[in-house]
Amino acid sequence: MEMEKLNKSQIVLLTLLVSFVTSIATGVVTVSLMDQAPPAIAQTVNRIVERTVEKVVQSAQTAAVPAAVGQTVVIKESQLISQSVDSVNPSVARLYTSDPESQIFFGLGLVVDKTGVIVTDSNALGDYSDAVVRLQSGAQVRAFVIARDVGTGIAYLQATTTTLDGKAIAWESAVLSSSKITLGETVVALSGKTIQRIGSGIVTALMPREKAASIIDTSISQDSIMGGSPLVDTDGTVLGISTGVARASSVSGFIPIPPFEKPVEKSAQSQVPVN
Questions:
Q1: Coil, strand or helix at 238
Q2: What is the mean pLDDT of the chain?
Q3: Would you tell me how many other CB atoms lie within 10 Å of the CB of residue 5?
Q4: Which string of DSSP letters, residue by residue, matches 47-104?
Q5: What percent of the chain has a predicted confidence (pLDDT) above 90?
Q6: Looking at residue 14, what is its pLDDT?
């Protein structure tokens, strides 16, 4: 057969045949040389071959199986606000006068201790020394004013251990902030006389006071704030409460809540005991 008369297909087949025969011959020669080579050289060559095969297999598996991609979970701010409100809700109460025939709404209160200590706006209570506390569950409890802090405008009430219908009650205390408040952080105020309402905004300023905690000023509308409204961050931590003292500095201002033992330790000038 003359090479000049071969067509393209025949040339390709002939080339493949030559390559195949050459490969077989190369393999036979390689095996013969490996048999004659010193053990050290044979081991080195075997290791190179094994590692080459491992890399080829790994590359094939990587190509066949998609690489695991880390998922980024995006949490909306509205979700954080909802979770924050849900976490503080069990500690929020509405305060009324103790007269069952004509109950007057005072404002909101916040449980700050598992023994039933509640804080509220002293201005909202006026001269009253007791109140009926209505929790989110609907349970009603009698509470009595134990101290008023003039410096913060906070009134402290101690609730009884049973509801008005004689049932035992377990108090859920709110988590009070112990960290530094940051300008620009998102905050939520709770309010509402008969139904729950919220207003959201950011911390716009920390208004310093002489020898006292700064007033937390916010961008929350004053329509969403009432006496005793707690200010909560997106973690459900209570940053402060709305009192007459805070609102005198800013209509959207709140004052940090000190530990409930603190008013007892203050001097008579800053604390007015209730007889």
A1: strand
A2: 83
A3: 7
A4: HHHHHHHHHHHHHHHHHHSPPP--------HHHHHHHHHHHHGGGEEEEE-S-SSS--
A5: 56
A6: 73
Rounded to 10 degrees, the C-alpha dihedral 213/217/218/221 comes to 120
Which three-class secondary structure string do you get for 118-180?
A: EEEEHHHHCCCCEEEEEECCCCEEEEEEEEEECCCCEEEEEECCECCCCCECCCCCCCECCCC
Residue with the bigger pLDDT between 204 and 273: it is 204
pLDDT higher than 70, residue 274: no
Q: What is the tens place of the pLDDT at every residue in 127-165?
A: 999 999 999 888 999 999 999 999 999 999 999 999 999
Cβ 234 vs Cβ 87: under 8 Å: no
182 vs 249: CA distance, rounded Å: 19
Structure tokens at 244: 């007459």
What's the whole-model pTM score?
0.68
Residue 190 confidence (pLDDT) above 80: yes
**Under CATH, what is the fold of the domain 77-272?**
Thrombin, subunit H (2.40.10)
The enclosing H or E element of 229 equals none
Return d(Cα 150, Cα 173) in angstroms, integer: 23
Please state the domain extents for the chain. 3-64, 77-272
Contact 125, 131 (CB under 8 A): yes
Task: Report the length, in residues, of the chain.
Answer: 275
Quick one: three-class SS letters along 14-33? Answer: HHHHHHHHHHHHHHHHHHHH
Closest of 199, 274, 229 to residue 109, by C-alpha: 229
